[in-house]
């Protein structure tokens, strides 16, 4: 036994007393199986995303071939006449998301600051839970609330906006006459409801990065005589900038994909709804939810192609947001 | 949690022995009050609130041709901010005004978010009670209910059954996958080689939580129903829900699996246990309350998803216990279908369905919070001071709250280990 080991020992340099000797244990067969299972589970995420893209492409290929490049430039959605495209639904969906962001970002950021900096410490866990609860409210409930509660109450505001700022701001103009139905089911109202759905997402993510602002810098700001707002402005906000940008992007991705609330509120139109207060809007997800019942292959295929565009776009936004957030997180731990 | 910056009277003064004056007693000193609310602040705020309300009413009802509650509230708020700034500027310096204004802004948006949640729950409750107070709503299906039938006929039992079956199936599919992925993220991330794979997986999981739900539905529609030729059924719906729930479970589970103290794992390895035994007998049991929370949170999100179900389950008015054959309605689908009908009683049923759905979500959510209460995540900035405080507190509180305290203390000590 020792004789067999002897030759290899002579080649090994004498162990350096200052360094720990390298140790490694060979994995047992059961561990190898276990690691394989774990790796399979981890990689299943890749597989799942790949499968989604692959099958949407597969099923949407018929429509993409039939429409060609006009799929990206055509505004109408008439599959029977072979003229359909996302040139209206995609910008409209982005418009809804942008309006949602305009409303949600200020509210969500100040709410996050409130929870992390201003709220009494005893209330903080309850507030965090409530924001999480708001994120867990089903989107159909938001849709019901927006359709029956918010819409009748916000129409007066929309009318005021259109009448008093429509002259200066063309996108607030309403061309269909000053009657109440001109202002319902608009991009703006859909955006407002979607904003409520993304407020909890942006709030909880930014609260997390705000609360990670290092205590040393906070104390330093206070020691230099800063007020609380001064501390927030010079320590918490700069420190949380990356995370906030990521949170806003994630909120944008969520707003783009929001389906049911939008589909309940809007009345679908297939032209770009630049006049955001005007009746009628659309988005890719709402289009799919409203038209999936069409039975012919081409219509379904066209919806699959539209879904592929939505999938690719949200994936891009979300992955970018994820990288920004994870980078800001790793920065947090090194400066901690 | 108290930050060390919390200089409010009483929070530190009594506990800190170093502030005791050593020399002869000094003349009575007025302690400078750093936090809290003074009377003038309250009065200024109340005055600004009342003044802006009156001005708003005057503008809205008498001067300008506005209408609508929304605009009224918005105008009131803006006027309030303006008046508050003005009234503040009269008595305080600019710095103080800015500070108070920022405080008012933060409080108001916090209260706005609370009001929104309360409003949504309250509105669904009020509108839903009309149909939900009749017991038949929870015992009947819609099979024999015509559009104009009285509210005392028809119900949502078929949708409740469908929701529960689909949710159960989706949980069975998504939980093992989600927890395994979470364990993968933690275990593989501990080696240098694994960390390279782990990062993209984590980003992708995060991106997947924001996957548009309609895309999940479209995917299952394209694969299971159109390509594999299954019929629309509760099973297909549960697959779509799995795609939505799995990343949520993964993310929530990863957080708790990561918090399992490294010392426990090392102890297990030192006793000669293999990796899978360590995970099975040490990591998962330690993380069990948090894992339960993760599962229940995923369920709370899954049960409310409408669009995946819309594309894959198929609508029906009859009770269908068989998730694998035939259409199976779930609660969101039930709401979606009836809210679009032009009959008031149908809309009332939809609201009652929404009330039922909200109740289910609330119950799941509260369950998750109660189960995960001992797992309160540790806020980073307070970690270091708190750890010191916690060890100092141990002898004093050990008699009372030992299990909870021990766990949080362990978790705090573990946090740096898993971070770096």
Account of the 3D structure:
The complex is a heterodimer of chains A (about 325) and B (about 425). Chain A is an all-alpha fold and about 325 residues long. Helix content of chain A is about 70%, strand content about 0%. Chain A has a two-stranded antiparallel sheet with strand order 1-2. Helices cover about 70% and strands about 0% of the residues of chain B. Chain B is mostly helical and about 425 residues long. At the A-B interface, helix 2, helix 4, helix 5, helix 6 and helix 7 of A face helix 2, helix 3, helix 4, helix 5 and helix 6 of B.
Summing up helix and strand content along with how strands pair, one would put the structural category of chain A as mainly alpha
Percentage of residues assigned to helices of chain A: over 70%
Alpha carbon gyration radius of chain B:
28 Å
The computed structural class of chain B is mainly alpha
Give the overall shape of chain B.
flat
Q: Characterize the largest beta sheet of chain A: strand count, sense, and whether it forms a barrel.
A: 2 strands, antiparallel
Please, how many helices of chain B?
15
Straight-line N-to-C gap of chain A? 52 Å
Beta strand count of chain A: 2
Uncertain runs of chain B are 1-19, 375-420
Read across the widest sheet of chain A, the strand sequence of neighbours is: 1-2
Oligomer: heterodimer
Give the SSE layout:
The complex is a heterodimer of chains A (336) and B (420).
Chain A: H1 2-11, H2 29-67, H3 70-73, E1 77-78, E2 83-84, H4 89-118, H5 124-136, H6 139-165, H7 187-211, H8 215-223, H9 228-239, H10 241-257, H11 260-265, H12 284-291, H13 297-334
Antiparallel strand pairs in A: 1-2
Chain B: H1 39-63, H2 69-91, H3 94-132, H4 157-189, H5 192-209, H6 213-227, H7 234-258, H8 262-270, H9 275-286, H10 288-303, H11 307-312, H12 331-339, H13 344-371, H14 383-397, H15 402-419
Task: Sum up the structure in keywords.
heterodimer, A: 336 residues, mainly alpha, two-stranded antiparallel sheet, 2 strands, 1% strand, flat, disordered N terminus, B: 420 residues, 15 helices, disordered C terminus
């Amino acid at each position: 036994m020792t004789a067999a080991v002897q030759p290899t020992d002579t080649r090994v340099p004498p162990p350096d007393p200052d360094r720990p000797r390298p140790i490694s244990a060979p994995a047992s067969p059961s561990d190898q199986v276990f690691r394989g299972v774990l790796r399979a589970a981890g990689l299943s995420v890749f597989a799942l995303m790949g499968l989604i893209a692959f099958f949407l492409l597969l099923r949407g290929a018929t429509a993409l071939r039939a429409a060609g490049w006009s799929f990206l430039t055509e505004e109408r959605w008439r599959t029977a006449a072979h003229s359909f495209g996302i040139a209206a639904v995609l910008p409209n969906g982005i418009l809804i998301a942008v309006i949602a962001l305009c409303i949600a970002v200020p509210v969500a950021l100040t709410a996050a600051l409130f929870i992390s900096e201003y709220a009494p410490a005893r209330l903080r866990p309850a507030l965090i839970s409530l924001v999480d609860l708001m994120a867990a409210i089903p989107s159909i409930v938001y849709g019901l609330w927006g359709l029956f509660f918010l819409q009748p109450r916000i129409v007066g505001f929309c009318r005021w906006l259109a009448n008093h700022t429509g002259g200066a701001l063309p996108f607030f103009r309403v061309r269909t006459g000053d009657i109440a139905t001109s202002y319902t089911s608009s991009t703006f109202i859909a955006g407002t409801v979607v904003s409520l759905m993304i407020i909890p997402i942006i709030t909880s993510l930014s609260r997390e990065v705000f609360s990670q602002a290092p205590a040393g810098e906070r104390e330093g700001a206070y020691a230099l005589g800063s007020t609380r707002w001064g501390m927030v402005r010079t320590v918490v906000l700069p420190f949380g900038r990356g995370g906030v940008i990521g949170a806003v992007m994630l909120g944008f991705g969520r707003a783009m994909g929001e389906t049911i609330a939008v589909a309940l509120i809007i009345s679908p139109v297939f032209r770009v709804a630049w006049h955001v207060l005007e009746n009628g809007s659309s988005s890719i997800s709402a289009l799919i939810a409203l038209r999936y019942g069409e039975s012919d292959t081409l219509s379904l295929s066209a919806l699959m192609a539209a879904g592929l565009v939505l999938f690719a776009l949200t994936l891009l936004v979300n992955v970018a947001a994820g990288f920004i957030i994870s980078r800001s997180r790793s920065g947090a731990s090194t400066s901690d | 949690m108290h930050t060390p910056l919390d200089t409010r009277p009483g929070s530190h003064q009594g506990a800190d022995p170093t502030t005791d004056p050593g020399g002869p007693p000094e003349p009575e000193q007025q302690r400078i009050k750093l936090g809290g609310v003074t009377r003038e602040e309250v009065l200024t705020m109340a005055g600004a609130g009342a003044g802006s309300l009156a001005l708003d009413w005057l503008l809205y009802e008498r001067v300008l041709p506005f209408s609508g509650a929304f605009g009224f509230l918005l105008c009131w708020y803006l006027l309030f901010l303006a008046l508050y700034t003005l009234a503040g500027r009269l008595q305080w310096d600019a710095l103080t005004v800015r500070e108070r204004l920022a405080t008012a802004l933060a409080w108001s948006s916090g209260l706005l978010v609370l009001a929104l949640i309360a409003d949504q729950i309250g509105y669904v409750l009020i509108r839903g009670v009309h149909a939900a107070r009749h017991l038949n709503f929870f015992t009947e299906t819609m099979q024999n209910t015509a559009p104009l039938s009285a509210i005392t006929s028809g119900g949502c039992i078929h949708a409740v059954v469908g929701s529960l079956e689909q949710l159960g199936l989706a949980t069975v599919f998504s939980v093992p996958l989600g927890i395994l992925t979470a364990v993968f993220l933690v275990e593989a991330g501990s080696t240098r080689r694994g960390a390279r794979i782990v990062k993209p997986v984590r980003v992708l999981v995060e991106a997947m939580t924001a996957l548009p739900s309609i895309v999940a539905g479209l995917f299952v529609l394209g694969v299971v129903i159109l390509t594999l030729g299954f019929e629309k059924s509760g099973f297909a719906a549960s697959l779509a829900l799995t795609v939505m729930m799995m990343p949520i479970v993964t993310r929530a589970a990863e957080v708790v699996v990561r918090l399992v103290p490294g010392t426990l794992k090392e102890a297990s390895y030192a006793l000669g246990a293999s990796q899978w035994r360590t995970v099975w007998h040490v990591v998962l049991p330690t993380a069990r309350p948090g894992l339960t929370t993760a599962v229940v949170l995923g369920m709370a999100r899954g049960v409310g998803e409408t669009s995946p179900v819309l594309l894959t389950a198929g609508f029906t008015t009859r009770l269908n216990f068989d998730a694998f054959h035939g259409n199976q309605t779930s609660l969101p689908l039930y709401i979606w279908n009836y809210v679009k009908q032009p009959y008031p009683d149908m809309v009332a049923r939809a609201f009652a369905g929404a009330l039922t759905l909200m109740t289910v979500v609330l119950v799941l959510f509260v369950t998750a919070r109660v189960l995960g209460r001992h797992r309160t995540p540790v806020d980073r900035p307070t970690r270091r001071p708190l750890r010191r405080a916690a060890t100092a507190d141990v002898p004093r509180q050990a008699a009372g709250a030992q299990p909870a305290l021990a766990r949080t203390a362990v978790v705090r000590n573990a946090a740096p280990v898993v971070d770096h």
